[in-house]
Amino acid sequence: MSLMFASPVVTPTVGSFTFSSRRRSNYIVMSAVRSNSTSLCPVLTKFQKDCATPTPYLREVANAIANDMRAGLAVDGGGDLEMILTYVDALPSGNEEGLFYALDLGGTNFRVRSVQLGGREERVVATESEQISIPHKLMVGTSEELFGFIATKLASFVAKEKPGRFRLEQGKKREIGFTFSFPVKQTSIDSGTLIKWTKGFNVSGMEGKNVVACLNEAMEARGLDMRVSALVNDGVGTLAGARYWDEDVMVGVILGTGTNACYVEQKHAIPKLQSKSSSGITIINTEWGGFSKILPWTIFDREMDEKSLNPGEHLYEKMISGMYLGEIVRRVLLQMCETTDLFGQFVPVKLSTPFALRTEHLCKIQEDNTDDLQIVGSVLYDNLELEATNLEARRRVVELCDTVVKRGGRLAGAGVVALLEKIEEDTKRMSSGKRTVVAMDGALYEKYPQYREYMQDVLVELLGHKLASYVAIKHTKDVSGLGAALLAATNSIY
Ligand code: ADP
Ligand code: MG
After folding, report:
1. Per-residue pLDDT tens for 318-336?
2. Could you report the per-residue pLDDT of 149-191, keeping only the tens digit for each?
3. How many Cα atoms are found within 13 Å in the side-chain-facing hemisphere of 295?
4. Active-site pick, 234, 305, 368, 441
5. Å from CA of 421 to ligand 2 middle
6. Which residue is closest in CA terms to ligand 1's atom 22?
7. Hey, whose CA ends up nearest to atom 9 of ligand 1?
8. Is 196 one of the annotated active-site residues of the chain?
9. pTM of the model
10. Dist CA 151 CA 209 (whole Å)
11. Cβ contacts of residue 239 below 8 Å, gap of 6+?
12. Within its chain, how far is the Cα of 404 from the centroid?
């Protein structure tokens, strides 16, 4: 069926089964009868089968991720996971003192934060932050324009500082922890070159350039006497910020628009580390979104991937992160709509629009507790112009969302297990009864309870009750700015 149906004239009152148009009403009644007698929807049934993630299979996924971790630690490009050295060799201890700054660039906003640290007893004495939206033209302009804008905003943020609240010691420059959440080849704790822009950024003349040098030049040009002491990504920032309050934090995971994970690794377990003194710890940025093996890839995943900006890459990210879950559901729904009459005769134009359904909408669908799934009906109608007028159809949609979210949450859980088992290999923490904390940030984890639960289940399934009982997954919202400021303190030149 390829009929396109633009916009229906009247919004049906979904749930109460009242319809405005006679013709559609007749059609819908017929469809309801049909779907009651045949509750089969082959597209959904097959999709559910293809998405299954039974425990033995997740065990293989966790093992495959851990193997790629080892391969990436042995040599650059050895596995799907890049296992980037972050040069963060010391984590916040709680003793940090002084005034430090964080600058966070990674999306449509950038954030500036000042943090007055008062040492072990006083901790964070004062902190201020400001969020500034980046005009779209700067996201696709030149590096001078972008960094000029950032430096200017940073200068006015510092100028507003209240002298009583924030104190810079004499003779010291203001030091910044710069969170730059794009793929970077780190060359030291305070330098790194941009590998490629993502997330809608395309600033000319930046790829292959040291991002810290770009910021330093812009600050100098404006007479702003500050220096970048640490360049980190948001996963590292989350780990460091969470570690400041809880010394058992070993992993930082981001589950938002995209996904990534960083963890504390023993240097002796990193063959590619050139340094002679391979003792102590360092943080590894796994870039786990790049994992692409043995995943439950369906035709819908393949089609979404083919249309993406990075086809063939980041397949794990495309199954588990917020940017994609809604889009997968939309693609399956489209085929359900084309091959059954659960949703009437017509295929709405909006249902064919990429990214018309977002992960937030799946969450709303799964939260619907009404008897007739009224909210499901309105989410579908409001966002896709899809008329799910019979209860059977709406139930199917709930099942579909659950299938995609369950697969995503469970696969993310397998990733967390891979990291925990890698940590366990060298430290034997959990088996000796030591609490081990995974710090989580990102709106997908924060706002999607079912996703969280599916993920948590996997820890018990794969680690077993005993080891899992030593693992705590902690939601640590917005600590990455504090983490970046702390890493500036840890790596201060003074
Ligand atoms: P970022 O990863 O860009 O820093 P966030 O952590 O805020 O940003 O994550 C944003 C993503 O989280 C959105 O792309 C969306 O997929 C998901 N998300 C936002 N709100 C919700 C919600 N209410 N329920 C489920 N997922 C959500
Ligand atoms: Mg974020």
Report:
1. 999 999 999 999 999 999 9
2. 999 999 999 999 988 899 999 999 999 999 998 889 999 999 9
3. 27
4. 234
5. 26
6. 360
7. 256
8. no
9. 0.89
10. 18
11. 91, 249, 251, 252, 262, 263, 264, 283, 439, 483
12. 16
